[in-house]
TrEMBL record:
Organism of this sequence: Flavonifractor hominis
Span of domain ABC transporter: 2-237
Coiled-coil stretches noted in the UniProt entry, renumbered to this chain: none
Name of the molecule in the record: ATP-binding cassette domain-containing protein
Top-rank lineage group of the source organism: Bacteria
Length: 238
């Protein structure tokens, strides 16, 4: 279970997150909405332990992440970044294997068990045939699928997906969201940051909206996603 209490963070003088509280249970598919710059990625970075100067408390399975090593936290929380990636001169298999790094002793190479995990993750997303391709020669959408496979190979039970459908064609958007819903059904906790209220309406069990650094809505999509919220978040009606 993920439990965020009174989370505050600022990169400089202007606060980005102000007293954010949210909980997410195993099996929950939660969409985080908010305009550009609302703080969605910053929230995810705090949960990943990448911004240690935050105020408040973040607990995973009852333990404060402040006391966890990166290796232990990687077994609990995985991040799927937005699809603007620098060039990585690796094969798809190598990229997915990176998700298994926390299982290895320092400087050890992945073994058979890690390769199997990586292959299963690629198969789960229907992209096993990408394994030997060059990651940097894939399209943005194809790269996105590989990064989701990497998170699955990591075997963390909390997945933070940062705008996972933004670079995908319609078919792959549906595939990724269906996959996220299936993973939630298997007991994963999934947080998806998203700009598409229709996706939230169709797939979210719960919607959390960030505005001006605060949570301004938290509930089932049919209750939370009203015209007032759309106007407040995006300045336009739904
Ligand atoms: P988007 O939907 O556009 O991806 P977001 O909701 O994910 O936006 P964040 O990336 O969390 O928003 O950014 C929140 C605010 O923090 C923005 O005003 C952004 O300019 C600022 N910010 C983000 N990263 C940094 C940084 N490394 N240094 C300074 N300011 C930053």
């Amino acid at each position: 279970m993920l439990d965020v209490q009174d989370l505050s963070f600022s990169y400089g003088p202007r606060p980005v997150l102000r007293g954010v509280c949210l909980q997410a249970q195993p099996g929950e598919l939660l969409f985080v909405l908010g305009a550009n710059g609302a703080g969605k990625t910053t929230l995810f970075r705090c949960i990943l332990g990448l911004l240690p100067g935050y105020g408040g408390q973040i607990r995973v399975d009852g333990q404060s992440i402040a006391g966890l090593s990166a290796r232990v936290l990687a077994q609990k929380v995985a991040y799927i970044p937005q699809s603007h990636h620098p060039a990585f001169p690796y094969s798809v298999m190598d990229m997915v294997l990176m998700g298994t790094n926390h299982r290895l002793a320092p400087f050890a190479s992945p073994g058979r068990a890690e390769r199997q995990l990586a292959m299963e993750a690629l198969e789960t997303l229907g992209i096993a045939d990408y394994a030997s391709r060059s990651f940097q020669r894939l399209s943005g959408g194809e790269q996105q699928l590989v990064l989701i496979a990497r998170a699955l190979a990591q075997q963390a039970r909390i997945l933070l997906m940062d705008e996972p459908t933004s670079a995908l064609d319609f078919g792959n958007q549906v595939r990724v969201l269906e996959r996220a819903a299936a993973l939630a059904n298997q007991g994963y906790t999934i947080l998806i940051s998203c700009h598409n209220p229709q996706h939230a309406m169709l797939y979210a069990q719960r919607v959390v909206a960030l505005h001006d650094g605060r949570i301004v809505a938290d509930g089932p999509p049919a209750d939370a996603l009203d015209e007032g919220l759309m106007q407040r978040l995006y300045g336009v009606p739904a």
